[in-house]
């Protein structure tokens, strides 16, 4: 390996130093860079392309299910933020404030939105007159700021992050529940079908729900280092925001009623989970569904074979492009094939086609899978179908590996020693009966920094909250008191 390609490649190991490895993949694969202010990142073209792809996938589903996009100001007057008390208490330590505009001191401080319920809800109140105005479903793609003093981790922990936030109002509690489950289902779908990451669905324990919410539901993904990532959340807000902001409507009998609201969000943390789940010590690994370039063609030639190799490669590139694949033909003269292989591996292009004079003469192509380097030779004829099949196989390989990691890392424990020991040794999820007392979570959290990340629900969908799954044993795994809820403990990002 030349010095140049060493500098290009990843030097840290995913299994030994996951934190350093992750930071190196993000930077060297050209996804993001650190901004001059701590806690902020610059998203580079390849990183932003991933966000756009995720955005497209989700936005399409939202629009098919009655959601309209809007945009609200990034500033929220302090008096608006104060109207719903839980929001103030929940976000107060993390809010960034604007106190001055130009040379003028502002009469009222403006919060940089940590989330937008407090600015959107009063307008929802204005726009909701009659039951015929409901359901009202709004979504915005934007960034929010939460001033957390933690170490910057691109896409996982940044003071400003990109997300979407959906806000809806409904005439009935049942309507709001249907909304909550629809959105959670769409998040699950985008994680599984677009990011090739299986997730667990459930609710957050009450002490960890969104400020002001009745219930917070979540999809959780298990990373290879044994920590859980909260992938997206969907909140049933009950009537607390509707009451605080007067979201009322005249029902069919002209009686005034208070609406029920929901909010739901997915942030670019999903990209953090994507990078962490599939990538390896050679760099980024992407499922073909989200990869900006799905197929790279690397022609391999000598002076006397250059013309025929390039002609043949271009024809294949054109044919694949016409069929709708995202293709790059790497015909750079100044780089040798070995360098190109390393670079495309680092950048996570799922499928590589190698074309040399032998492939041209035999009317074939050599195909190499990024995740495991598996290679095979196929006929030139039928290349579109062949590439399609290979991309599907690559997706399946990634999904199956992530699914295996998840299935092997859900364990049971029935005593504090056992919970601590199991998470300490294996990471992953430990499921245990729980009495519902936050103190029992604290007892575990103090010792090992693991918390209850999720409680599975019997029925996930429909028009009710659903019941928390009952455990097989009826004693709390921490305190031994009677327990009728099942809880999943894990360390988390
Ligand atoms: Zn307990």
UniProtKB/TrEMBL annotation:
PROSITE patterns to which the protein is assigned, alphabetical: AA_TRNA_LIGASE_II
Keyword ATP-binding annotated: yes
Domain Aminoacyl-transfer RNA synthetases class-II family profile positions: 47-287
Molecular function per GO: ATP binding; proline-tRNA ligase activity
Origin superkingdom: Archaea
Catalysed reactions, as listed in the record: tRNA(Pro) + L-proline + ATP = L-prolyl-tRNA(Pro) + AMP + diphosphate
E.C. numbers: 6.1.1.15
UniProt subcellular location: Cytoplasm
Predominant location: cytoplasm
InterPro entries assigned: aa-tRNA-synt_IIb, aa-tRNA-synth_II, aa-tRNA-synth_II/BPL/LPL, Anticodon-bd, Anticodon-bd_dom_sf, Pro-tRNA-ligase_IIa, Pro-tRNA-ligase_IIa_arc-type, Pro-tRNA_ligase_II_C
Pfam families xrefs: HGTP_anticodon, ProRS-C_1, tRNA-synt_2b
GO terms for biological process, alphabetical: prolyl-tRNA aminoacylation
Protein biosynthesis among keywords: yes
GO cellular component, one term: cytoplasm
Keywords for the protein's UniProt record, in alphabetical order: Aminoacyl-tRNA synthetase, ATP-binding, Cytoplasm, Ligase, Nucleotide-binding, Protein biosynthesis
Coiled-coil segments on the chain, per record: none
Domain remarks: Consists of three domains: the N-terminal catalytic domain, the anticodon-binding domain and the C-terminal extension.
PANTHER family the UniProt entry points to: BIFUNCTIONAL GLUTAMATE_PROLINE--TRNA LIGASE, PROLYL-TRNA SYNTHETASE
Function statement: Catalyzes the attachment of proline to tRNA(Pro) in a two-step reaction: proline is first activated by ATP to form Pro-AMP and then transferred to the acceptor end of tRNA(Pro).
Stated family: Belongs to the class-II aminoacyl-tRNA synthetase family. ProS type 3 subfamily.
Assembly description: Homodimer.
Protein's name according to its UniProt entry: Proline--tRNA ligase
Species whose genome carries this gene: Natronococcus pandeyae
